[in-house]
Structures are given as C-alpha cells and as structure tokens.
Amino acid sequence: MFNALSGQCEPFPRETSAIPNVLKWYACGPTVYDKAHLGHARAYVSQDILRRVAERTGGYKVQLVMGITDVDDKIIKRAKEQNVSFQTLAREQEMQFHQDMTKLYIKPPTAITRVSEHLPEIVKYIEEIEKKGFAYEAIDGSGVYFSTHELGKSYGKLDPRRQTLENAEMQAEAVAAVEESQVVEEEEKVKKDPRDFALWKAAKEPDEPAWQSPWGMGRPGWHIECSAMTHHVLGDKLDVHTGGVDLRFPHHNNEIAQCEAHNHGVQCGHDKEWCKHFVHFGHLYIRGRKMSKSLKNFISVKDFLEDGHTADHFRLFCLQFKYRTNLIYSEDRIRDAVVVADRLRGFFRSVVAYGGDRDISSSDAVKSKRCEKKDLEMLDALFMTQAQVDKVLLDDLDTPRALLLILDLVSRGNTYLLAHRGDTEAPDEVLIALTGNVLEVLDLFGLEGLHAEFSAMMRRRFALLGQEQLHESDNLVSRDEQEALLRSLLKFRAAV
C-alpha cells in the first residue's frame, strides 16, 4: 500500500503495535452537522474494501476505531440555525451516517470514539504536551497553541511541499490546501509561529458549548481530538491511519506532531514513528469541482439510493478506479457500473440455464463426470485468476485490475458453457468451483446485494448436491434489486 509518510508503496507492518498481524487502525470519521454525500461514501467504501482485503487476503486481524467529531464550529452554527441543541443535531446526523454506511454494505468499525465523550482525556493530553514544553497559552487568553518551533525539523512530515507526489494534479491540490490553511485570521496575532495551531479554544460567548479546563472554559481544537482519542483507545502507537486526501494536511500532519510531542521521552517501541502507515483516498468530483457540503454540489447517499441506484452499483463504480485517484462522478459512469453488474448476472443466469434442461427431481440427474481437457483448462484458468487477483489487490489495492480479471474469468466461463452445449456435459464440480470463486471475490468487494442474489441462484441450481459453501440465502432477487424495482414502479406510476 502507498504510504503517505514515505511516498512509496510498502506492505502493512507485520510487527504491529499490538499482537503480530493485528492492525491497530484509526479512521477519521465525519463531522456530523449534515448528511453524508457520495464524496464521503467514496472514501468509506474504498476504506471498507481495503479492510476486507487486509483481513481476508492479507491475513490480518483489524482493530478499526473510527473517530466522530460531534463538537465543532460547524455543528454549533447549524444547530443555532435549526434552533436545536448541538448534541441533538450531532446525534441525529451520526445516526443517519451509520444508516447510510450500512446501506452501502460498509462493515462497522470495531469501536467508535466521540469528542463529546472524551473531553477529560483530551484535556489531560493537552496538559501532557504543555508539560513537555510543546504548547503555550496565548497572551490574550484565547486558548492554548501547539509550538511547532519546539518540534523542530520533525514538524511537517505530511506537508506536500516536503514531498513530491507522483500526480501533478494532486500535488497542486495539496499545496493549495497548505496555503489555504495559512490564511491570516485574528488568532494569527497571538501565535509565536504562523504554523502553530490551537489545542484548546477559549469560549467567546456565554451561551456557546464549553467545558472546564486548567485554561478556563472552552473546547478542544480539531486536531487534538483525534490524537487524544486514539491514545485513549489504541495506546501510544498505531499501525494504520486512513482518511480522505483532504485530511493529509494540515489535519493528519498536525496529529503526528501532537503525538510525537506527547510521546516525547516515552519508550514506545523499537521505532519512533507514532503511526507507521498513512493511507489517503482521493476526492470525488462532479461537474469539474470537488463534491463538498460547502460548495453545495453534493449528492447525498440517501438521495442516490432513493433515485433507483443500488449500493452494488456505487461500489462497482468505485472499484473501477484506483482508490488514490481523484474520481469524476457522472451518471454515465454509474451506468457503466450497471453494465458490469449485468455481465455478472448474465454469467450466473447462463449457469442456471445450462442445467435447466435437467430434471433435478430425479436422482439420475445427479451424476459426476470425469474432467476432460477443456474442464482442466477451465480449472487452470480459475486458479490462475485466483492467484492474480490476490497479487494485484496486494499491490496497492489495484481493484480495477482485479475486477477486469474476474470479468475475464466470467467471459471464459461463458465460453466454457457454450463448449459443453453439445453431447458432453460440464462436471458440476467444475461449475461449483468456478461460480464459488466469483462469489468469493464479490463478497470480498462487499457487493453484498449481488452476492446474495447469485448465491441463491446457485443454491437452487446445485440444490441436490447439498453444497453449503455458496452462502445461505433464500432470495432469488437481492434486497437492493427489489427496492430499486419498487422505486422505479412508483416513479412510473406517478408519471402516468
């Protein structure tokens, strides 16, 4: 996997921070002031696929912790606009976020941390940084700031100006993010260094959310929240940190600075890095601009799914492109994903049709047949594809190549079925191995709707063989397909 720290592709660590092969993994979750959109979904779907590959293909046990920002200026502002408490808004939006992720077949994290539930730990974390000389109180009492000067040359490990990114567009975008983060504001006047950032912000208004601290009433800065919460749940070190590429700088960069300052002088292991591997997911663009809430050019996950699309279609859309690239959203590309789903569906229907002329109620129909040359060639292609899929997925999560390999296998499977349309009969064992492998990859990709639909078809096709490995499902049509069909019918009816 590409490691943003080194700028190179490196394997995930085997000598992990906990037990060997157990990845301590922290993922930045949403700031819950509005509904999740497809830009968020692209990042979390990519992360989910990476997690599944790490667990199944890489052989890791994953301890995935997601941080939820439920104390933030945007949340407070939106809550005032809606005349509700910030806690109520945050809980409602967080609940909607988790519902959206479930509908996209994203596996839940091992644990969730919320800022509002970790204020004591955050205050203690800041105190430790201040005690070690890496923080100072502003002379005007506006808060506590991190001293980048005290960290010296160690500060800026994810500053894109210190690295040459392989993609010129991403390099320019990352540098622009740095410049945007350095816009002069009122707080710049009290900083010792323009790069310094707030650890604790003093309350300005009597009615704004605030908590008691050694520096008076206030609330934490954005960056310190993740550092303190990861320390509380995962300890002094972690193995993998993920998030959107927009979080690389300054957020993740400043997390590293805080954690190194906090751990200064502490024996944390055989190396000094707080986190060994940073993985970032590309942006989603629409009509030439990044999809974002601030630009109001987003499509919510809820609206996407209610518009006749399915979670499988969105995941297939994501799978066709590298996770690190910026991706352009369009209806044409979603239709391309639908075509891929239909190709897969056509293959499984062919397998069903191939056995459709057999009387499966007769025990005479259940028979084995020795493998001939074309059967053995099909098995060779199957096992070769398995090895190639594993290889490309472990090569910086190359899902486009993996998907093409599966589609090529499906095409060969269709050719194989046609070759057996004459006097010869394809052994069920070969068909079970072939369809089982395709189903296994669909499950790995989190295409749960398609997996359930095709598994049910194969269970009925091979019912008398008692094969249980093809997945337990009694529905011939997936839940997504049923919901999409129902929505289409309702739209048609409303238009008549």
From TrEMBL:
Keywords: Aminoacyl-tRNA synthetase, ATP-binding, Ligase, Metal-binding, Nucleotide-binding, Protein biosynthesis, Zinc. Coiled coil: none annotated. The keyword rRNA processing does not apply. It comes from the Eukaryota. Pfam families: tRNA-synt_1e (PF01406). One of its GO terms (biological process) is cysteinyl-tRNA aminoacylation. Its EC number is 6.1.1.16. The keyword Aminoacyl-tRNA synthetase applies. GO terms for cellular component: cytoplasm. It is an enzyme of class 6 (ligase). Its cofactor is Zn(2+). Residues 21-337 form the tRNA synthetases class I catalytic domain. GO terms for molecular function: ATP binding; cysteine-tRNA ligase activity; metal ion binding. NCBIfam families: cysS. This is cysteine--tRNA ligase. It comes from Peronospora effusa.
